[in-house]
C-alpha cells in the first residue's frame, strides 16, 4: 500500500468566533416586511420599498441617478439610508480571454474577500465568498491559511452577486450582454459556518422578482467541508439547492490531516449526512475531491471512495475530482495527468458518475484566497 508523505506546517483548527466588524444595515439584509418598515422609518411611503427592490434586484443598481421613477429628494434619502457602501473592488484580474474575472474586494472595515465570475459557452457561474478568511484550516487551501477574520453579512454576499450580474448585463465580459445562471458558494470561507447569512442569501437569490433575483435553487450550490449538523439542517430548509461535500480523502487518517474538521465528524458521518440530504431533497450530492500529488490520489483511495459511496446506494452522488490549483511556495501540487486518469477510471469502474472539474484562472491566482493572502 502506498505511503502518504507527512504534512508540514499544519495550522491548528481555528474554531474561535470571528472578529466582528458589523456592517451597516443594508437593503439586502432585510426581508420584504423589514424593507417596508425601513422605508417608513425614513419618512417615505411603504410602496417605495417595492420600487427600490425593482431597481436593486431586477435592474441590479443602487445608483440613485438611475431611479428616475422616484423624486430626487426621495431617492437620495432612501439610497443614503438603505444602500451604504459595503465593498469596493481593490484588484481585478482576467484570464481565459477575459471570460474569467477574479475580483479582490475590500470590505467596509478593511476585510478582504474574493469572487470569481466565469463565462462559458452556454452558461455563466459566479463563485462567491461567505466569510473573510476561513477557520477550517485545511493546509492545502490558501484561504485556510489566512485564518478566520469574520463572517460576511447577507448583503455583503448579495452584493457580490449583484455586481457580477450587473457586469454581465453591461457586457463587460466578452460575448455580449447576458445573465448570471449559476451561483456556487465555493469562494473564501465555510458556508455552513455562516449558516444564517448564507441561507438568507439563498432565499434572496431564489425569491421571485422584484423581491429577489429569481434564480433557480437547482442552480445554486452550497459547499461544505462536512459540518454534519448543518448539513442535516440544510436538508430540512425546503430549498433544493445542490449540496457539495468537500471530501478530499475517503479514509479518516488522511482526511483528518487534510480537513481538520474530520476529527469532529468522520468520513462516514459526513457521507451519511450527504446521503440524508439526497433522501430528503431528491437532489444528487456532489463530492468534491482535490487531487494532490502523492497525497490523496492513489488508486486504492479511489477504490475505497467508490466502495463507501456505493455502500450508501446508487444514483445519489456525483464525484468531481479537481486538479489542485497550487498556491505559490506551497508543497502541494496537482496530480500527474496519468494518475488523475487512473483515479477517475477506478471511480467509473465502480459505477460512480465522475467528471473532472474544469479549472480556470491558474494564471491569475485562481484559487480563492490567493490575492487576499498576497496582500496580507
Automatic annotation (TrEMBL):
It catalyses: adenosine(37) in tRNA + 2 reduced [2Fe-2S]-[ferredoxin] + 2 S-adenosyl-L-methionine = 2-methyladenosine(37) in tRNA + 5'-deoxyadenosine + L-methionine + 2 oxidized [2Fe-2S]-[ferredoxin] + S-adenosyl-L-homocysteine; adenosine(2503) in 23S rRNA + 2 reduced [2Fe-2S]-[ferredoxin] + 2 S-adenosyl-L-methionine = 2-methyladenosine(2503) in 23S rRNA + 5'-deoxyadenosine + L-methionine + 2 oxidized [2Fe-2S]-[ferredoxin] + S-adenosyl-L-homocysteine. Residues 1-27 are annotated as: Disordered. The active site is at 114 (proton acceptor), 368 (s-methylcysteine intermediate). NCBIfam families: rRNA_mod_RlmN (TIGR00048). Reaction proceeds by a ping-pong mechanism involving intermediate methylation of a conserved cysteine residue. It is found in: Cytoplasm. PROSITE patterns: RADICAL_SAM. Residues 120-363 form the Radical SAM core domain. Belongs to the radical SAM superfamily. RlmN family. S-adenosyl-L-methionine binds at residues 189-190, 223, 246-248, 325. GO terms for molecular function: 4 iron, 4 sulfur cluster binding; metal ion binding; rRNA (adenine(2503)-C2-)-methyltransferase activity; rRNA binding; tRNA (adenine(37)-C2)-methyltransferase activity; tRNA binding. Specifically methylates position 2 of adenine 2503 in 23S rRNA and position 2 of adenine 37 in tRNAs. The keyword tRNA processing applies. Its EC number is 2.1.1.192. GO terms for biological process: rRNA base methylation; tRNA methylation. [4Fe-4S] cluster binds at residues 134, 138, 141. GO terms for cellular component: cytoplasm. Its cofactor is [4Fe-4S] cluster. This is Probable dual-specificity RNA methyltransferase RlmN. Keywords: 4Fe-4S, Cytoplasm, Disulfide bond, Iron, Iron-sulfur, Metal-binding, Methyltransferase, rRNA processing, S-adenosyl-L-methionine, Transferase, tRNA processing. It comes from Luteimicrobium subarcticum. It holds the Pfam family Radical_SAM. Binds 1 [4Fe-4S] cluster. The cluster is coordinated with 3 cysteines and an exchangeable S-adenosyl-L-methionine.
Amino acid at each position: 500500500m502506498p505511503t502518504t508523505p507527512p504534512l508540514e506546517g499544519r495550522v491548528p483548527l481555528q474554531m474561535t468566533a470571528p472578529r466582528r466588524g458589523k456592517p451597516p444595515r443594508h437593503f439586502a439584509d432585510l426581508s420584504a416586511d423589514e424593507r417596508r418598515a425601513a422605508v417608513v422609518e425614513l419618512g417615505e411611503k411603504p410602496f417605495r420599498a417595492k420600487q427600490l427592490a425593482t431597481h436593486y434586484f431586477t435592474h441590479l443598481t443602487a445608483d440613485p441617478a438611475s431611479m428616475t421613477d422616484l423624486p430626487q429628494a426621495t431617492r437620495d434619502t432612501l439610497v443614503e439610508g438603505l444602500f451604504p457602501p459595503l465593498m469596493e473592488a481593490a484588484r481585478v484580474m482576467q484570464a481565459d480571454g477575459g471570460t474569467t474575472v477574479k475580483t479582490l474586494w475590500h470590505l467596509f472595515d478593511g476585510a478582504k474577500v474574493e469572487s470569481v465570475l466565469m463565462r462559458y459557452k452556454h452558461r455563466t457561474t459566479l463563485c462567491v465568498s461567505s466569510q473573510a478568511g476561513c477557520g477550517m484550516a485545511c493546509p492545502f487551501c490558501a484561504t485556510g491559511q489566512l485564518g478566520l477574520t469574520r463572517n460576511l453579512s447577507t448583503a455583503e454576499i448579495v452584493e457580490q452577486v449583484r455586481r457580477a450580474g450587473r457586469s454581465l448585463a453591461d457586457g463587460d465580459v466578452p460575448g455580449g450582454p447576458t445573465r448570471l445562471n449559476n451561483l456556487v458558494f465555493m469562494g473564501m470561507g465555510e458556508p455552513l459556518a455562516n449558516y444564517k447569512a448564507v441561507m438568507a442569501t439563498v432565499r434572496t437569490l431564489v425569491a421571485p422578482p422584484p423581491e429577489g433575483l429569481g434564480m433557480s435553487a437547482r442552480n445554486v450550490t452550497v459547499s461544505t467541508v462536512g459540518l454534519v449538523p448543518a448539513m442535516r439542517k440544510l436538508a430540512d430548509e425546503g430549498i433544493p439547492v445542490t449540496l457539495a461535500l468537500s471530501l478530499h480523502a475517503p479514509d479518516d487518517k488522511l482526511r483528518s490531516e487534510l480537513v481538520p474538521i474530520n476529527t469532529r465528524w468522520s468520513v462516514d458521518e459526513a457521507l451519511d449526512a450527504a446521503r440524508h440530504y439526497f433522501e430528503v431533497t431528491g437532489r444528487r450530492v456532489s463530492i468534491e475531491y482535490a487531487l494532490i500529488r502523492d497525497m490523496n490520489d492513489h488508486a486504492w483511495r479511489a477504490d475505497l471512495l467508490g466502495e463507501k459511496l456505493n455502500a450508501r446506494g446508487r444514483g445519489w452522488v456525483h464525484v468531481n475530482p479537481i486538479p489542485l490549483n497550487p498556491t505559490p511556495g506551497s508543497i502541494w501540487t496537482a496530480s500527474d495527468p496519468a494518475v488523475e486518469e487512473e483515479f477517475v477510471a477506478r471511480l467509473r469502474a465502480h459505477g460512480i458518475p465522475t467528471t473532472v472539474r474544469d479549472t480556470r484562472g491558474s494564471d491569475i491566482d485562481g484559487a480563492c484566497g490567493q490575492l487576499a493572502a498576497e496582500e496580507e
